[in-house]
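We emphasize that the prediction below concerns an isolated chain of 406 residues; any contacts that depend on oligomerization or on bound cofactors are therefore not represented. The input was used exactly as deposited, without trimming of termini.
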Amino acid sequence: MRALHTADWHIGQTLNGWSREAEHEVFLNALAELLETEEIDLLLVAGDVFDTTNPSGESQRLFYRALAGFKRRRPNLTVVISGGNHDPALRLEAAGDLIEAFDIHTIGTVRRKDGAVDVDAHLVPVPGPDGDPTAFVLAIPFLRAADLTGISFSVDDQDRSIIETARRFHAELTDAAAAKVGDLPLIATGHLHCAGGLESEGAERRILIGGAHAVPPDIFPERLDYVALGHLHGPQGLAGGRVRYSGSPFPLSASEIRYRHGVTILDIDGRSVTATHREIGWPAPVLRLPESGITDLAGLEAALAGIATDAPTELRPLVYVELTAEDAPAVVLGRAEVMLREAPVRTAGVRIHRPQTTAEASAVPPAVALSDTDPETLFSAAFETQNGFAPEPRHLAAFRDAVGEV
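Result of the prediction step, given as a token string:
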């Protein structure tokens, strides 16, 4: 049997006002083709299908259109989707009675029965050619504090209590599942931050259960033959590869440009699971200008001149720009924005770096009582701190106009 593990699609994400819907559509079409060419039997989506808990109608249509495309390519495909911290948990489950008829299963919340976790609601059989189960998926969504009973929230004991409670939760659920599946392969999903995993800045929220945001990978019992995780956007394996993040499908922030984005393909032979990372090309380039360090306006102009594309606007390169403040930051930003508007790119972000002098770095400004100063003096000091030079007459005139002085 072959499975494909993916996560962190974040359908509906925007960058600096730019919709990424077209990029998601390209990725989902590529995923549908991969499911067919690799003859995938099981698709695992480990959370953060959507970017917000209130996805737009367009985002939801894109999601369901993709699922329909997957099933057209692979009619016998089993799909298991577990919720992430970005997902609308109950909305993700709302269509369950309908789409389960097509062997598409969505688990957005921890389901309980008679005071205990309902293992049957989380356990999904994966049928083989004869219709009998050849494996099972234990679908575990993002866990909230209310899902873990017995947490101590005392300051001294909180982190240890959360880890031990999470370990007990997974042990009890795995034991209950193992009693039902016998010696068949048992694969779990999850959406959390495992200690030792590399997180990316700017796209992943630190998800908290109490005060701890990371748990050790050994909370997943050895009986789980593979754990398909979501939340961290860089593809990476933990616990010898048995616990793995597939990563996001393409960069969702500047810090993810270096990642080898893609999906994980699983070859399952009995209870032996072999994971292989499969890169997928980005739907649109995501660039940092310059590739490292910072540049000036002339350097930016040269870099933009080297970008040529005939892609539609929604698939043009997204660029992050790092500029030195060779003039007042507002002036530099204004000139950069003009260049970027005229180039065949989408601006993801511009950051202006003001050189800091040694004196500035070491100086501690003395405390000044408000009665001993005036607004213009405060403005001048703030302007110089921000821009690295004293305000010119035009700046002071603008300030006086703003405060109503002549």
